[in-house]
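W.,

You were right to be curious about this one. When I first looked at the sequence I had no strong expectations either way, so I just let the prediction run and decided to look at it fresh. Below is the sequence, 713 residues in total, followed by the output.
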Amino acid sequence: MVFMGGMRIGHNKKLMFFKDKNFFYFLLIVLFTFEVSSQESNKITYDQAYFKQFNITNAADAIKRIPGVENLSSGNSSQNFEPGGNNKKRGFGSSGTQILINGERQSSKSNNIIKTLERINAQSLIKIEVIRGSEAGLDVRSDGIIINIIVDNSSSKGSGTWSTALGFLTSDSSNWRGTGSWATKIKKTDIVIGIERVGDLDSRTYNEFTVDKAQSLLYYRLRETIEYQTNNKISLDLSSKINDKNIIRINSLIWFDGKENSPQIQEYFSPSDVKNISFYKKVNWDRKENNDGWEFGGDWEYQFNKKNSFKLRIVLTEDNEDQNDISFLDDTINSYINSAETNIRKENERIIRLSFNRLLGNSSSLEYGIESAYNKLERTFNLVYFDSNSEETNAGLLNTSGEVEEDRYEGFLSYNFPISKKIRAELALNYEWSEISQSGDVTLSREFKYWKPRIDLKWDYKKNRQIRLNIERNVGQINFDDFISSFDQFEETIRAGNPDLEPETTWKLKLEHEWRLPNDGGVITLKGSARKIDGPVDRLPIDGFAGIGNLGSGERTKATIDGSIRINKILEGGVFRFMGYLQSTEVNDPVTNTKRDFSWYKRWQTMIGIRQDIPGGKYSWGMTYRYQSQFNIYDPYLWGRFAEEPKIGFVFTAKINPKLNLNLMAKNILGTNLGFGRKLIYNGFKSNNDLLIQENFDVNEHSFFKIELEGTF
């Protein structure tokens, strides 16, 4: 394997459609020669009158009433269980949330866009535009559908939103959360102030039994984990039109007094104690974390003339965490502190982005500029063990303290233009240079350089139907925590830090077909994608432990169907939602040298749901059903698998009066069983096939309920 310009080149075959010119020739011929029947506008508008039939209190509620965009109501967030995965985008870039406010994206990475929409009173909502595919002059690159929410806070009297909620589990655990906001206008400046009390909780029980390689029972184990999370947030959003040429926007957020507690009790029982009456060993984990932080973001837009403008965007962030975990062991003879873990971390990010936009003619645009991003993580990890005599033993880990820094610069150029009346394209080329360095227990510095081309095509080949094609090269954002050693609480094992970790790169081809049913009857979208991944992030053997590193190369293909259909003839005011995907992944295992799928990736997933706004505008309800395939966990020293049970959720809203709603929510109401899994733990590398033990565990969780009042004033 050789390295070229920071990109790893292996001996695996490449995706031929990226090299074969005939593919592009065929594509262009099809695009230009297909006979079209009619043309539909690229933009669909829902005005204020449309939303009056629903019991909405804010802009976030409004999005849920538009077919085909309900998936954006979570703010484009998704859980990422990939080892080394990081949900944060690389820098700020042209990608981001697909929700704009008055044509602009927030200058923020920590401020959830949905929380911002919840602070926008429904009375301030003018209209919502659904923009299909790419469009000239947008403030963010389209991933298919972009929502532009037009609001007016021109009233000097001001308006506000508020909510208060109690969440509780069937285990009797509960917590409170609430929000409040105030929006007003002072001369030329729109001001929105928000406060939020975050509260979240979860609880799981594990019923386990462990056998040896001869399948002889070794012991039973019962585990129970309760997770609490709280913090307080204050936000301030400003937008000031100084004059016809200058606009300044500021988005700021402070979170403080954050607490995350996840105590766990483990009880061990002998093989003969089938009913788990008397434990022979008990471990009580006391896990606590305090956190706080802040973010300041803003942009200045200057309009030279009707066709030329520039924008300066700045985002500054700091996040502080202080984690302390202590385990107490009771072997029925002695009771003592068994281990102590500390994890102190501070993370900073600074982004400066300067972009110029030039309109060419009536429907083309050219954007170019440069972005600088600096990321820094300071972290110290310490783990010690104690015996019954309080004798201390260090875990023997290397690389437990240090700083990881990335200094990155990126130049970008994109050209958005119509090929014909029915076809629009966007061509983009970015060049990135970065330096990643580590100091402390390990001292190392490396440079990376990447070219990142992109092609987007949008084709309105028929009325209400659109085809979108995307080809691009992406560079992933690595998790700096993986550079420094840590303890994996889920798998109860040490993770070695890897100073040689580098970003994975991906060539991606994505094809989408969108069919909008007549008379706003709904949307059905088919999606297909193929990825060739160089250096996928996964687990490797490092210094006698498992750690996060880069594999050689991998592939991922995925097919998705996503739909939202109005069913007024069956259920007046009803909408039927469905989603499903099937995917295949492949990578070479670093230990066994055999082909396997990616860790944590599900083979398939499905969701069906129904929502009804009962005629009259006072009541609405919804229910969702989710089911997914099992997934595998790969490690140099173990192999695991977990199969999750189906889940059902339910929501209900009642409009008590024009300014007050009652919301009810329930999760896990189908049953409390979360799923079943097992882990095969080997004596050394799993390639030696020397099985040590097999853990089998049945996981249950409590049902969750929330009662909420939300209103406006």
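Here's what jumped out at me. Residues 1-40, 75-87 have pLDDT under 50 and may be disordered. And, maybe more interesting for your project: The helical segments are 21-33, 48-51, 59-63, 113-118.

Coffee later to discuss?

I.
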